[in-house]
Amino acid sequence: MPPLTGRVALVTGASRRAGIGAAVARRLVADGAAVLLHGWEPHDAEQPWGADTAGLRTLAASLASSGGRVATAVADLTDPAAPRALVESALDEFGRLDIVVANHARSVPWASLEDLDAAEIDLSYAVNTRATLLLVKEFAAARKAAAELPNAPGADVPGRIVLLTSGQIDGPMPAEIPYAASKAALAGITPSLAAALAPHSTVNCVNPGPTDTGWADADVTASVVGTMPFGRWGRPEDAANVIAWLVGPDAGWVTGQVISSDGGWSLRT
What are the strands of the beta sheet with 159-164, ordered from one edge? Predict the structure, then answer.
């Protein structure tokens, strides 16, 4: 039996089929989980790489056609009410929620120190940090409410939360200061969240390192390859593999950790 049979997961930031969120969703469905896919295409539409038009719906249809139990939710995570709405959507669709993978991110390619303004700092923290913390809060509240009900589905199954940080600790990101700061906050808060939710849920954070999701131009791609010990960029599936393990039954003794699944990026000289 697949290791996540009967479990329900919420994966945020899954609207780009070339992205980590989509890869995580594919892996969790393959492992037996039902998945609520979240996306917000307007953010990607503002980026140089553009939005994956209808990516969320197409991903959901593909997973459903292979027998997966999936649903979709569109939500702007600058709205402080969105995290609760996402948790409620998962409960409405599937009757329970066991896993949250907070993969969503706001990033802009122009936010150097010279270009920095309060509005972009606030937006980056609202999406990357505030929304993630509120999502953890709402997940914990839903799990507590389920535990207080007799015979609630999944109440006896340990919860799993995985946050996504970036490689700001392994090298400077001077062109993306709000993004780097807001993602660093997630790595920093992981031990505190893990302590707050123990022993009923685990909380871990993954740094996937440079990952080929279609955002980098040819020059950036070549320069990164030259510094990677394995001679290639990370693939979305590389991150999905470690996340699938962290949310599965074999990782119940792992919590409060920031794990670099980066192909040795952090070892470069």
Answer: 70-74, 34-39, 8-11, 99-102, 159-164, 201-207, 258-260
Question: 257 and 158 in contact (C-beta within 8 Å)?
Answer: no
Catalytic residues: 179
What digits encode the pLDDT tens for the residues 193-220?
999 999 999 999 999 988 888 777 788 8
Which of 207, 237, 232, 230 is closest to 222 using CA atoms?
Answer: 232
How confident is the model over 143-175, as pLDDT tens digits? 999 988 888 777 788 999 999 998 777 777 777
Task: Write the CB contacts of 205 (distance below 8 Å, at least 6 apart in sequence).
Answer: 162, 163, 164, 165, 186, 187, 190, 257, 258, 259
* Cis before 199 (ω within 30): yes
